[in-house]
Structure formats: C-alpha cells, structure tokens
Design a protein that fits this description.
By secondary structure, this protein is of the alpha+beta class. The protein is built from ten helices and 31 strands. It has four domains: about 290 residues, Glycosidases (TIM Barrel, Alpha-Beta Barrel), CATH 3.20.20.80; about 80 residues, Sandwich (Immunoglobulin-like), CATH 2.60.40; about 120 residues, Immunoglobulins (Immunoglobulin-like, Sandwich), CATH 2.60.40; about 60 residues, Immunoglobulin-like, CATH 2.60.40.
Length: about 600
C-alpha cells in the first residue's frame, strides 16, 4: 500500500500542501517577481495565458512546489464563429486550429503540467447568450469540444462566462442556464469544470449587489439545487476575477479605483464569500505579468501581500487598530482599518463598564472596501457603551483592541434620507449636459432647522461632487419629502457633462453636515447611470440562404441593450428578441431566424 508520495522539486523549493484559501492569479506573458511570490503561496489553482517561455517557467515552478495544484490554460485567438456556422464543425475547427497546435509542440513533461483547458473567452469567438438560439449554438459547440479536450488527456473548463451573464431577468437567466445543462453534465462526466468571471463592478461588499456580479454564480447553483440536483456540486473555477468597471485597461481595474489596502480588504471579504461555496475550486484574479497592457489591473504591487495571504498562518493575528465609534439614533457604528491578514475575521465585544468584562456581540465580521465596520442596533439612546474588537484566523483569536466609548444621543433629531434619484435627459448620451435631482425625506423625530440649507451633493463613481442643490432652506417636517434639483457645481455649472460607460450616481443629503441628525450614516443613495456614446445604430441587415437575418448595431462597452422586433409596423407591440445584451465592444452582432416570414422590423433600446 502506498502511504505517501515524494515529488522531485528544484533545489530550494519545498513541496507543500495547498493554500487554505481560494484566491490566485491569472498570469499573462512574464514570470515576474510578483508571480514568483504568488506561486510560493501554493494557490489551489493557477491560470496561464498561452505557452510562452514565461508561462511555462511559472507552470513548472508552481507544479514543483505545489504538485497537487491545478493549472488552467487559455490559448488566445482572434478567430470567431458566427451563428450561421455549424457549431459542431466550429468546435472541431477550434480544437484543430487553436488548441491542439501549441499543445502538440510541448514536451511530454510540460504537457503534463496542464490540467484544465479553456475554450472561447467570454463569447469573443462564439455566440453565447444573445438569444435562446445563440445559447443552443453555444451548448452544441461545447458538447463537441469537451470530448476532444478529454481525449487529449486534459479536463475541459467550459463556458468562460463574462461577468453579468447570462443577462436578463431571473427567469431569462434560468432559461439560458437550462439550455447549457447538457454541456455542463457532459463536462462533469469528463472530470471537467465550468468557468465564470467574478468581477465586482461597483467595488462593494454588499451581497445584494454582488449576487449579480462577482457572486452571480450563486444564482446558477440555486437553480441547480431546485431543478438539476446532479449539478449542485459541479466544480466551478472563477478564471477571471477582481475589480472591473467596463473592461478599460487603464481605468477600470483596482489601481485606478482605490488603494492597495482597499483592494486587499475587498479580497479578504471575497475570500470569505468563496469559502462558503464548496463547489468553487478557486479564483484566478486578473492579471499579472502584463502591466503595459492592463495597467490598472496589474497585481504586481500587491503580489507580495497575496503570496503571504495564501500561506497558512502560524500565529493568531494582532489586535486590530484604529477602532472608532459614532453614535446615532439608537445605533452605534464602529469602524476599524487594520490591514487584512490571511484570512482574518473580527469579533466585536461590548460592555456597559469601562474595561469590561465584555460580551461578544458579533463574530466572523469580514473586511469592507474602505474599512471594516459593525453596526450595533441593540443600544438605547442616552446610554454609554464600551467596545473592543479582536481578530481571529485559522490558528485562533488574537488580543483585544484598545477600547472605544460611544455615548448615545438623548434628544430628538431630524434624519434625512434620499428616496429617489432621477436625471434629464433620460436616456442620456456622451457629452449631454445632465441635470440631476433627488427626493429627500425626513424620517427623524424632529424637523430640519429653518434657515439652514438642506443640500444634496451628486457624485459620480465615488468621486467628489460634480453638481449640487443648495437653495432649499425651509424646515422639512417629520415624514415630509421634497424633490431638489441641482443648481450648482464646482465649475459653476448645475449640469454634469456625461462620459460614456456604466457609472454609479450617488446622491447624498446634507452632504456637508450643516445640521446634526439622529443617523449620519444613511444619507446616500446610489443608482446605476448608463451613458452610451450615442443612440444605437443598426447596420445593414443580411439574409442567409437559410433565411437567418443578421446585423450589427453600434454600442458602448458595458451598456445593456434590448433588441426588439415587429412583423407589422402598423399594429401590435414590439417584442423582445432574446434576453438583454451587455455590450463587450463598440459593436454587437445579432441573428434571427425568419423562417416563414416575409418581413420583420427591428429596433434596439438601451435597457440600463
């Protein structure tokens, strides 16, 4: 009986067990110092793009030190297949012209490094979720490609689903996933996995938001549990992940949208989310090795942190630092800003007596984007409460932080919140001058002070205010509301000149704290603001011999569109042609089977 395995490794490299966490990296081009740091952390999964010398060097080092780790390979290709092509023939062509040639050029030892093979990336090469017909095409493509991958000795990693896809309503998402079930079942039977790209768009730790973005895969597994229980443990590899607003290399990634500490805290939170999902094998964060091509996504500045984060801790974490408390109406808000360690959670403790003894109020509190926080609602106005926080990891709990004392207010105060945000023109396009407005409600126990401005600040993507409303000075009674329109801004203009892309518009009431409130932490409301470069324009429509109509329309990357049709312009309602489409470039291709029809009219609407 074999009781152990000995792996031959290069001098100075010690084969170790896998990282306890699921984070890793998506490697491109070069074997950098940062890549070596991540490899030394023994991640469970590592992804490489193509088979250049840097990628093979990384793969060899990874397998030498982490022999049970899994490598996912993607081969880049500009090749694409329209929906009018036969999907089975296209799958064979993809294998013989894209995947097979670079693999055949490998030595036997290098070939053995590769565990999983990906296929077309995010639908760049094939139809995917543009319509039910496209989903059926994609399913047939994969049911023909997976056996070819398996026959060559690799495990298929199918799908490579772009963030926010399949698009549409929950029922439309389920319809697309149901269509793909045969391909999933086949891949599972071949020892394979499937792939989703788990990006946060708005850089949040709100699961209500992230369940549509970085955690969207949970919707798929919820459907599996109820409809396809044999797929409830289908292995999933998140072969891209991190922060991405619209796919723009220099402005969409984490470096352009926060500090390294912000990203590390988000990753700590994300790691704790992944730990809840046993079917997730790992997440390869995009990217490292190609800073010139993807400057704002480059992981090199945090690669040392990530490598250390992946390693199993040997000591409990130190006491948290920077604990602060803010009293509001029957609520105490605690925040602290300690740098995240692998993987750290926090315990919040409270006492009515300075110095304790303390009662534990919460455990397993994880990092936030800017800081870690806990809201204690089990407090009474007029009372005084003393708090400490401790950190915990797999080894144990560390010591308590220094104490913070929070004294609750004992007077009636207003509490203004934003209940609605709107703008004109709507829809808005690039270079439009947009006017924002917001509805503010006073839900407190006292009116706002008369003669003091009740202001609203409007900001874009978490930046400073671009416009504001500052003319309302009347008292706003308890439970009363008022709608305020922007009338000024830092440039003297009351409008914002729109830039294309998917933005987050935030309206904040009493944004510069002109008067005290019972709750200072609930003044803001954020909504999506989609700005297209211009109205979508439909190009020339072509008809194939099999009576399939095809056309493209102009689009803005990251914006969601809905294609609609009518068979008679003089009557009836417009009908949706498939699910909503999230544009990944400045053009979107559409196809439609016109069997039995003499004419059909199309239009494209911006749907977000």
């Amino acid at each position: 009986m074999i009781t152990g395995l000995l792996a031959l490794v290069p001098s100075g490299v010690i084969a170790q067990t896998l990282s306890p966490g699921k984070l890793s990296a998506h490697l491109i081009n070069s074997y950098t110092i940062g890549v070596s740091n991540i490899v030394a952390g023994h991640p469970r999964v590592l992804k490489i793009l193509d088979l250049g010398s840097g990628m093979l060097q990384a793969a060899r080092a990874y397998k030498a030190g982490t022999p049970t780790g899994q490598i996912v390979l993607r081969i880049y290709t500009p090749k694409s297949y329209p929906i009018t092509d036969d999907p089975a023939v296209s799958a064979t062509n993809f294998w013989t012209t894209v995947l097979q040639p670079p693999l055949k050029a490998l030595s036997a030892s290098d070939r053995a490094l590769i565990d999983y093979l990906e296929g077309p990336n995010e639908g760049d090469s094939t139809p995917t979720w543009q319509s039910l017909q496209a989903a059926q095409w994609f399913t047939t493509f994969w049911t023909n490609l997976s056996p070819l991958i398996a026959a060559a000795g690799f495990k298929p990693c199918i799908g490579s689903i772009a963030v926010g896809n399949p698009p549409g309503t929950p029922s439309q998402i389920q319809s697309n996933i149901s269509t793909f079930v045969p391909a999933l079942r086949q891949a599972k039977s071949l020892g394979g996995a499937w792939s989703y790209h788990a990006y946060t768009i708005n850089y949040t730790t709100d699961t209500g938001v992230e369940n549509f973005y970085s955690l969207r895969y949970r919707q798929f597994y919820g459907q599996f549990t109820s409809q396809y229980p044999d797929l409830a443990d289908m292995p999933l590899i998140l072969t891209e992940g991190g922060v991405d607003q619209s796919g723009t290399p220099s402005t969409s990634g984490w470096q352009a949208r926060g500090t390294a500490a912000d990203y590390e805290r988000w990753l700590n939170w994300f790691e704790h989310q992944l730990a809840q999902d046993s079917y997730v094998l790992g997440c390869t964060l995009f990217e490292i090795g190609n800073p010139g091509g993807w400057s704002s996504f480059d992981l090199e500045p945090i690669a040392g942190w990530l490598g250390n984060y992946l390693i199993t801790p040997t000591n409990p974490p130190p006491a948290p630092m920077g604990l602060a408390g803010v009293a509001t109406n029957a609520t105490a808000l605690l925040t602290w800003t300690s740098a995240p360690l692998n993987p750290t959670t926090y315990n919040v403790k409270r006492s009515r007596t300075s110095g304790g003894p303390y009662t534990t109020m919460a455990t397993n509190v994880s990092e936030g984007v800017k800081a870690t926080s806990y809201t204690d609602t089990a407090v009474t106005n007029g009372g005084t409460y003393c708090y400490v926080v401790s950190a915990a990891n797999a080894v144990g709990e560390g010591s308590n932080s220094s104490q913070v004392t929070v004294t609750m207010p004992n007077t009636s105060l207003p509490d203004v919140i934003v209940t609605a945000v709107s703008w004109t023109p709507n829809p808005a396009f690039a270079n439009n001058n947009i006017t924002f407005r917001a509805t503010v409600k006073n839900q407190g126990t006292a009116p706002t002070p008369s003669g003091v401005t009740l202001g609203i600040g409007f900001s874009i993507d978490g930046g400073p205010n671009v416009t504001w409303s500052s003319s309302y000075t009347n008292s706003l009674a308890t439970n009363a509301s008022v709608t305020l329109t922007a009338n000024g801004g830092p440039t003297g203009s009351s409008t914002w000149k729109a830039t294309p892309g998917l933005h987050t518009l935030t309206a904040t009431a009493d944004d510069i704290n002109r008067f005290p409130e019972s709750n200072e932490g609930n003044n803001a409301m954020s909504v999506k603001l989609s700005i297209s470069s211009g109205p979508p324009q439909i190009g020339q429509i072509t008809i194939t011999t099999s009576n399939v109509a095809g056309f493209t329309f102009s689009a803005t990357s990251g914006i969601q569109y809905q294609v609609q049709f009518k068979n008679d312009l003089n009557g009836g309602q417009w009908s949706d042609l498939g699910a909503d489409i999230v544009a990944r470039s400045n053009t979107v291709s559409v196809s439609d089977n016109l069997s039995g029809l003499s004419q059909r009219f199309y239009r494209v609407l911006q749907s977000n």
